[in-house]
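Service request form, structural biology core

Requester: graduate student, group of Dr. S.
Request type: structure prediction, single chain
Budget code: on file
Notes: please return the result as structure tokens.

Sequence provided:
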Amino acid sequence: MRVNNIPQAFPYQGSKRKLASVILACIPKNTRRLVEPFAGSAAISVAAAWNERVDSFWLNDAHSPLMALWNAILNAPLALADDYEKIWTAQQGREKEYYNAVRDRFNRDSQPADFLFLLARCVKAAIRYNRSGEFNNSPDHRRLGMKPETMRKNILMVHEVLRDQTMLTTGDFRAVLRKTRKTDFVYMDPPYQGVCKNRDNRYAKSVVFEEFVKELNALNERQIPFIVSYDGRTGNTIYGEKLPESLDLFHSEIFVGRSTQATLLGRSHDTYESLYLSPLAVRRLGDIPRVLRENESTVQLLFD
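Core staff response, request fulfilled:
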């Protein structure tokens, strides 16, 4: 499996690119279509395409500027790369004021190249909005964003592996799930529960826990296999409520890395993220993937 050189179309907070090898091991090799209702940077779909594990893809996200960026990547990659290069080059010598000008322009016109530049330059590559619906994250003054030649290379590589086999939609995750077929495999990476508040400025739209559980139950009833990346823990701090036993899911904790914030505070805390496999996903695989059994202290079958 090629995991060390998987391209990334754009920087994105919460991307599962570093966990791609673990998650791909949980997706059957004969999967006809991989569906991502919370696409984000679509790191798992890109990895699956890069490794030729899946025939086709459906990327959806409720955030329309994000999906407009994906549309540009798949249908106009050269123009997007050219526009990004022009924007990136024009910032030289006036980085802060220029970033603010691009941010104002994006809030007015929502152009994909402007959004790409903001993601490349903003703090933690995080999408944040104010209560008026305006992108308001600040620039990271330590860097100027990905260089145009690197960005162009990544855009073109992702375009090449996804262009002829990917459907793009913008909308609520529930509408996507209800249109899935038994031959699909669904991978979901919803916003963490800790940031799912009606007025939270980190996401364009939140996901209500009870509604999410209801949709997962419906997938089980319709025999649609799925995987969910969800809340986890850092040290002894647990984030969010676990998915209920009634869903009959296999739960594993995946090591993500050392907590940067804890390190800055002089503490050593490892971060783990929960991964849930539906009963049908486990049956399609034939067994629990070996990668999930390598560390028995962090892997447990919670629901018999």
